[in-house]
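Inputs:
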Amino acid sequence: MELNRRKFTNMLIGGGLLGWLASVLYPLFTYLIPPRVEEQSLNSVKAGKVDDFPPNSGKIIKFGRKPVLLIRTETGDFRAFSATCTHLDCIVQYREDTKHIWCACHNGMFDLTGKNIAGPPPRPLMPYGVRVQKNEIIIEKPTNLG
Amino acid sequence: MKIGYTSIFAGLFLGMGVLLAQPQDDEKTSYLQQLVEVDQCVACHIEEEALPEGLHENDIHLREGLSCAGCHGGDPTSDDMDIAMDPARGYIGIPDKQEVPSFCGKCHSDIRFMRRFRPQVETDQEVQYYTSRHGRLLKAGDTKVAVCTDCHTSHAVFPASDPRSSVYPTNVPETCKRCHSDSDYMAEYKIPTDQYEKFAESVHGVALLKKKDVGSPACNDCHGNHGALPPGVTSIGQVCGNCHINNLQYFQKTKMAEEFKKMDLHDCIECHGYHAVPPTNDEMVGVGEQSTCIDCHDEGDEGYKAAVEIRAMLRNLTTAIDSANTLKKQIQIIGMDDLDIEYLLKDAHQQLIHARTVIHTFDPKQVEEKTKTGLDRAKEAIQLALEEIEEYHRRRKGFLFATLFTTLLIIGLFIKLRQIESEQKEDAHRREP
């Protein structure tokens, strides 16, 4: 009886210790594995290689939960703006024919500085910073500018 | 009778004198009171309490130095009424209504005069006005129609970009309403007078008047302003297409556009109405009670089938988006990561907007291209949301097990301590003599 009680107690301690260790180590190891999604407070994202963007083209890039329009102008410069139209939140696009940013919802137009130049949008598009590092395009949050 | 440039320049000169003499730090001094010192028109009219009704101190003409004589002529330097208001000195007083366009046009149609105030200023308002319904009727002798001062006021004129202006976008409907909603006043023209009421309840009216979205059209955006006319049958689509360009372009390529022309139907307004344009909803497509398709299409015909198909595609997509949105809210409540879900949902919603635009092709295949992409995004969002919810439950269970194991450990340790204490006591008893 005494032996059984001792054995039971040791098992209880051993099992509890193992379980406790597992519950401490599991979140520790899962923390060390890179998360599936980016951090919510993003400061910058990699948009791709320079060669992936031909001159006079635009592409929507995911910046956290926000879409950003990355444009490569005819002269090869990179510019990035919030892709959310300031009128009614539609996603804007780059028009290769007119070389303007265009919102298909209500024919709003922005120039390549993001300024609203035609249609109903009341405000310019928020600019994002763009820098090229070792042939990689990095889009930065507006607060990182200047 | 014509007012001379001498009077205008005299007015401008006096006004400039006031502006220069104006003490910059004395903002409380009324601008009109300052004018009294140099302008006898203002001095007498204040004394006689006969200032024009509605006169605003910040009227653009007044502030640009164009005082009474600048428009009405006369000699503002003389305190003798007979001299000041002598026709020989250019005094013309209040112009007849028929003369108002040329009265204002004397300056506003003169590019050399106007560009000193604003180099890019337009000077074709008077020309445009005489092409308008108002202008043509005025020329024909109808003095009930609107002239410049009816819309812009006489003495409280502000640039159209100034929210105080009677022609600022959010004020335009109210300005037009003054005549166009007066059924007695408008009776002889035999046109409806319920435009304002209908517009105010419309999607455009609510955006403009309630939400103060100046991007939304006011009366003049569809009818023109100085050259105001009802949009003609052939131009209605173009008018709507100013903002709804894709809808127009898709529609113009359809068989239906051609048929509309043949049948003398009026493009967009046949389905959407005009002054009372309601917010669009998916029920307008299909064969339900609110459908506009079944106004022309009967069961069994090609259009009817297309309407059923398109409605089903939209329903599938909106249902998927709604489901994903519900799950997203649930995820936000339980504090899990909704970042990718929200991004996917934005994309799905964008595809829905595109699909709703492509409806104007009346081609189910083209609509399906958009709804399918949107549906894929929404499904991805749902899948991610379910994974997040599963992860949440896994974490909860993990926490439960961790608590259980910790409790077991504590209990085990407690029993072990008791055992050790008990053994120590037994040993002590045994050793006692």
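The CA atoms of residues 204 and 216 of chain B lie 6 Å apart. Flag for discussion at group meeting.
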